[in-house]
Amino acid sequence: MSVASSEDLVPPLEAGTALYREEEKTVKKKKEKKKKSKGLANVFCVFTKGKKKKGQLSSAEPEGTARSRQGLDGPPPTVEELKAALERGQLEAALPLLALERELAAAAAAGGASEEELVRRQSKVEALYDLLRDQVLGVLRRPLEVAPERLRQALAVVSEQESEDRQAAAAAAGPGTSGLAVTRPRRWLQLWRRGVAEAAEERMGQRPGAGPEVPENVFLHLGRTMKEDLEAVVERLKPLFPAEFGVVAAYAESYHQHFAAHLAAVAQFELCERDTYMLLVWVQNLYPNDIINSPKLAGELQGVGLGSLLPPRQIRLLEATFLSNEAANVRELMDRALELEAQHWAEDVPPQRLDGHCHSELAIDIIQIISQAQAKAESITLDLGSQIKQVLLVELPAFLRSYQRAFSEFLERGKQLRNYRANVIANINNCLSFRMSMEQKWQVPQDTLSLLLGPLGELKSHGFDTLLQNLREDLKPLFKRFTHTRWAAPMETLEKIIATVDVRLPEFSELQDCFREELMEAVHLHLVKEYIIQLSKRRLVLKTAEQQQQLAGHILANADTIQHFCTQHGSPATWLQPALPTLAEIIRLQDPSAIKIEVATYATCYPDFSKGHLSAILAIKGNLSNSEAKSIRSILDVSTGAQEPSRSLFSLIKVG
């Protein structure tokens, strides 16, 4: 942002040639009139001769003017001489003019002059004041274009006139001056402030530079102009202006009023989304932070109290519009991204590979859309950023539900596509990016996070089911061998089951590591569940303790093989470890009381273990009486109560 030049701050100074022409005319007139005074400098000496008298300029008069009068003598200047001096821009004429005004007031008070004479003399004095006022305000209207000494002269004149106004106001309570019109207060300080407002309006009203005259460019022009001009006022004018002028406040208030008026006019129209955003950015962020509280202006404007560019109610309406616009934009952008992704699935476009994993850009696109909306709101105010977070916490779950539905449709319709499994894996991997983003950026309570990510859990679960479908089909006839052979060679059967799983595992290598572990846990669960289902078929009844102990030994060996294989390939399901060994122990034990203890312990590990499941296992023990079996089952009436299982095992197993 370039620094404002002197010419930019105020309207340009009129050409000086007119002033020189006036001086030449005055010189010619003086040559023609030989009886004129010896010069204006001699005329001024009458006001400096001897001690200063009441009513003379003191500290307000320029130092150079005071020096020019020392040691000079001569008659008071005539009206014509004062007029000529003022027309040449000589502000020193303010002193004798003020004396002339006071002399007139004294004559009126003395009562020696006629009313007609007083009116005639006052009209001449007022005409001279008109000239002086125009000269002084002309200088002050272009403060950066004149020499500092001349600016000080003009300021001193205004200060003296304000002082004279105050004296006139104090004297107004006394008897009036007969025959004279009331000419004070002249209020030149007020006129100067009006000129500042006009200069501000002229500067701020200029057309922006390059580019179309759209609100965004206009706001930038207004903000840049105000900042650069006020910095020039602080750096170059404040040191020269008396404190009573409040020069920084005067300019700041004028620029602020014009800026606010322009924004208020713009806000009355039906704004597009971009203009609504830019209006809020300027009102809530750029104006208060980059202009009012900028390093060069903050200290100067702290006590001015400029306030906001728009009233609070209008700001709230604009913020509500902004939030509504952003919600609609986010919704549209996310829907468009999902539509494009679903189109890629339908067209059998293979997913990207990133670090050996199937990769989809959908999660990145959605996270970026959400993040950009959040950042956009925060660029206005942090409070608005908090408000839009609540909006996004509604929009994101709605999108995730749409995503889950679209993915489910693809799972049903795309089974024959070549890249079907790869795209399933890519979408499962998406869940990790979504989850990490939510955990890191949103910082919501865990229960809220679980609710938000619920659709992703369903998507992942359906994806796992699809990936494991072929493996489950392969394993189904192998598990049936346990009952078909009446558990004659259980280790051989289990070895074939493990080998079948091992062959399929490379198909899941392109899952993210965490999901590959989850999928291996699902495989682990499936193996244990199917094993228990075969034990619960009621087709095997062992009547001797030796037979039951032999079967228990097989079950323990099989359980160890399953646990070792699944753990070795990444299954974190330690909760499944006691599932089969405890059942083996129930089958091995012969004492009903000992069996009860095992059942009670088992029910605490697996709250979904029911009487039906227990009955199916006890049916293997052919030497157990009905009363003993009933007594054992009764332990489940008092063991777990209504506790809900944290993980499902037996609820997945149906028993007759």
Which features characterize this protein?
single chain; 656 residues; 27 helices; 68% helix; rod-shaped; EXOC3/Sec6
Give an overview of the whole structure.
- β1 (352-354) and β2 form a beta hairpin.
- A two-stranded antiparallel sheet has the order 1-2.
- It is mostly helical and 656 residues long.
- α14 runs parallel beside α16 (382-413).
- It has 27 helices and two strands.
- Keywords: Angiogenesis, Developmental protein, Differentiation.
Q: In percent, how helical is the residue content?
A: 55-70%
| Distance from first to last alpha carbon | 83 Å
Q: What order do the helices and strands follow?
A: HHHHHHHHHHHHHHEEHHHHHHHHHHHHH
> Structural class of the helix and strand makeup?
mainly alpha
What is the C-alpha radius of gyration, as a whole number of Å?
48 Å
* Overall average residue pLDDT: 86
Secondary-structure topology with pairs:
Layout: H1 6-9, H2 17-32, H3 40-44, H4 63-69, H5 79-87, H6 94-110, H7 115-141, H8 148-171, H9 188-204, H10 215-237, H11 247-267, H12 273-292, H13 298-301, H14 312-346, E1 352-354, E2 357-359, H15 362-378, H16 382-413, H17 420-442, H18 446-452, H19 454-484, H20 490-504, H21 513-535, H22 545-568, H23 579-588, H24 592-605, H25 611-618, H26 626-634, H27 636-639
Antiparallel strand pairs: 1-2
